Structure formats: C-alpha cells, structure tokens
Structures
1.
Amino acid sequence: RKKARLGRQIPLHRPCLQRFLPRDFSPSLDLRPCSSPLEISSKGSRLCSPGGTPAPKSRRLPPRLAWCAIDWEQVRLLEPLGAGGFGSVYRATYRGETVALKKVKRSDRNRLACRQSFWGELNVAHLRHGHLVRLLAAAASAPEDRESLGTVIMEYAGGSSLHRALYGERAPSPPRCLRYARQVASGLRFLHAAGIVHLDLKPANLLLAEGDVCKIGDFGCSRRLQDLRSPAAAHPCQLGGTYTHRAPELLRGERVTAKADVYSFAITLWQMLSRELPYSGERQCVLYAVVAYELRPAFTPAFRRAAGGSPLPELIRDCWQADPERRPSAAALLQRLSSPELRL
C-alpha cells in the first residue's frame, strides 16, 4: 500500500519531470469503452448526403483499402455505446447485420492525434482472429458531418467491456479472468506476428462478445512496427493512450516495441484479479514515480486471494519489468498462461 501511494509523496521538481517525460506528453485517463464525441442527427435514420439522397461510397481511402469502403446506403445508426477523447461508438446495422460504428472527430487542438486515431483503426483491416475485433468497412469522411475525420465499421462484439464487468456487481471469477487473459494473449501474439502494436491495452478496450469470448478492440493508438522504424515516424507520445497502462519507455519517448503491449497486459491482468484501479494520486506524480522509481501496482490482499498459490505474481512482475528486453514476448506469455501449474 505504501508503495502504491508513492505518487502522492514524491515532490514535483520541474527539471526531473523534463528529464523523464517528453514535453508534448499529454496522456488521457479514459476508462470508457473507447478511447477515440459526435451527435446522431436523427436516431435510427439513414446517413444521407446534403441533398437528401444516399451518399456515394468514399473514394478517399488508398487503393489497398478500396475493398472496405463504406456503402452508406446500408448504414443505419441505432444507439450510442460510448465516447472518448477522439470520437464515439454507436450500435448500428450495416448490410442487415448489427455492427459497431465509430466516428473519429476532427479536432483543431490535436489534428495529428485525430488522424492517427482513424488510420490506426485501419491497421487491422486485413486481420482475422477470434480474439480481435474485426474491421468491416471504413471511410475517410461521413455524410452531413463535417466534424468527422473518418468512420470505421466493426463487428459488434456485444455491449459490455471487461472494465464494466470487473467493476460491476457480478465480477468474473478468477478462473474466468484467467481464461480471458489467455484469450487476450492469443490475440496479442497474432497482432505482434502481423507487425502491429496496440499501445492502448486496458480492460475498457477488451470486449466481451457472445459466447463469453474476450476480444481486443479500439485500435486507434495502434501502429505498424515497420512505420515506427522509419526516420519519419511520428513521436510515439502523440498517440495518446492511457497513462496508467503505458510502458515507462513510452513515457520517456523511447523506441516503441511489441513489449509495450506486454507491460499493458500486466497492468490489465493485475486489475482482473484485484478489481482495483492501478494507482491513486495526481497524474504527474504517478508518471514520475513509474519512470524514475519503477512504481507498480501493489499486490493487495484482494489480489493474493484471487491468485491463490499460483505463480501469477511472478508472471506479472516479469511482464512489467522496466527494461523491455526482460519482458516475455506475447508468445512466451501465452505459453506460461497455459501452463498446468497455473490453475486458479
């Protein structure tokens, strides 16, 4: 407990903060279902062009994504599901099927982050995996909505997130949480093998779909590793994300690797078993303590009761190591989670 409150006790010295944290770092503590607001002009109606006729398909996507251009005649909005810093998500129908529709808003304050949020969603356009939310269609504009930077249509993975389940009245049992953890690790292994990092893994971005299947969603912060190796790559901290789950090397503005997701997974797994929030105290204090003093969430009595005598604390410690090279890969993580020794 004393260590978990460390962020409240550390004095804030500006030179130290500037040393450890990039000047343009502006994380957002967003625990809602999506981290990417919008108003529905007419609930349940079709999206039409200003003339009242259905809008044509978007032609602004690159040729490689032409297959997933939105057919606006087939879109009907139903109800809002959640909102965040970069946009809103709605339940909708597309070509007769229930889907989730996300609109990324246009912002004059952080245009680059908004653009990255939209194009980040498209990083997984070609991927198909049972524990990743599947992208169905996208457009770089929206009819009758000049505030929208882009629209993404995804499979509807249910109206509940792991965050909502953990902090609700009927929280999932520890064995069920461990099963979710394996499913998330499986999705991460596939994602990393495809050369993509999520960079915003947290319970709010893990959706509980039909059949009690946990799926990774909200890829607005994701990046392709090959793009990050380019000299022209954008500063990683411009992506936003949630500071409580963000790896210390990213807080320092260092190189992005797939091990950043492994760190976020460790914080998420800790939340699954403890049903507590990772830190208390002011944001800048927590950031400073995570980077300079290797502050991590405490293994509380609630966590230890849920973990029992399993090696989960050791696994979590390995995953949130300060040095990314010392963290296991997603493949090794899945293997350890599937070990017969790890039973709850």
Note: The CA atoms of residues 59 and 69 lie 8 Å apart.
2.
Amino acid sequence: MTSVQNTPHTHLTPKRIAVLISGSGSNLQAIIEHQKNHAHLYQIVLVVSNRPNAFGLNRAAAANIPTLTINHTDYASRELFDESLQFALDKAHLDLVVLAGFMRILTPHFTQHFLGKMLNIHPSLLPKYPGLNTHQAALQAGDTQHGLSVHFVTPMLDSGPVILQATVNIEPNDTAESLQQKVHTQEHLAYPLVIEWFAQNRLQYKDNQAWLDQKPLIIPQQL
C-alpha cells in the first residue's frame, strides 16, 4: 500500500475548523492532540454537539475550545435544526467543518452550503456498508477485511468522494465490539492526517471529486 508523504508548506494562514460531535468525542480528542503540533496549520475554533450530555464537550472544554450545544430535540423539523446549525457555523467564519461521530443526517441544503468544506469519517470501506451497524454487517458478510473511509460530505448519505481509507483484518474471533476498537485506532490516525492535508491546501473538492496535490483521487489513499 502506498501513502502520500507530507511536504512542507510555509506561510499558510491557519485554517479555522469546527468539529461536530454527538458522543464521546474520541476522534475529536485525536484531532485536538494533532493540533497541538500543527497549530500553524489549523485551529479548532468551535465544537458543536446536538446532545447536551456528549462527553466530547468535556474534552473540548479541557482544551479551552469554545463549545456550543444545539439540541436537535428543540426543533420541530430537520430543516429548522440545520438552519440553526448553519447559522452558528457561518458566524464562526470557518474554513472546514469536521463531522466526528455526529449522528445526524444533514439536509441537502446544508450539505450543499458546505460542499467542499465538510469532511466525514465512516466506519467501513465505502462504498461498502453505508449507514449504521457497519461492523456487524462486515462480520455477517464473512469479510476478511474491514476499515474506515474519510470522505467529503455531499447530499447523498456516505456517498461523497473518498479521500483516505485504512484497512483492518477481521480475525475468526472478532466481534462487532472488537472490530470497532480496531477501526477506532485507525480512525485516530487517519482523520488528523486528512485535516492536515486540507490545511496545507493539498486537498480540494472539485468536479465532484477529491483532489490531492493537484491530481484527482481516482483510488483513495491508503493509511
């Protein structure tokens, strides 16, 4: 497997990033740790949760990152929630929105608004197993490999162009829980790397494709 090597980029203005979460925020923590050594490239300026009790909010507070809760249960429709979320994100003047365990299906209007400026990490080797329960799906299918995909977000769920994938082997004694832990370990390496590429201006979305170093990613990069 091949991977793209980092190249030095100087005189970049740090990108302003928001991270959206719904739960424990383990990927958020990995991004926070990565940012400590890459503050010249990007700054997490806001962490937003749709759940007020999400533990990831504590992680953000511990890192002195501003947080915001927009509780989806306070809104009569998905459209009204997304409208409120979009207003808050626009107010922060962001360069990139990072979905990190954000358990909401976003409306086409919202995803179109942030097209090319929003990333998601999905626990499967897309296009395999979009949606939920991916680890169990891989086991039931008898797969020998599983993994994750980092992709640009488009209006179609889990269908945006894939940037980077990481693969894990499925052993005979693996369960959905053990497989999830394997994938999580790789997620914490993969997501910060893709954010770094974006912050270095190496990664773009154009012509409905992901481009890295001025070339379309016909095949996703491998971690």
Note: Confidence is low (pLDDT under 50) at residues 1-9.
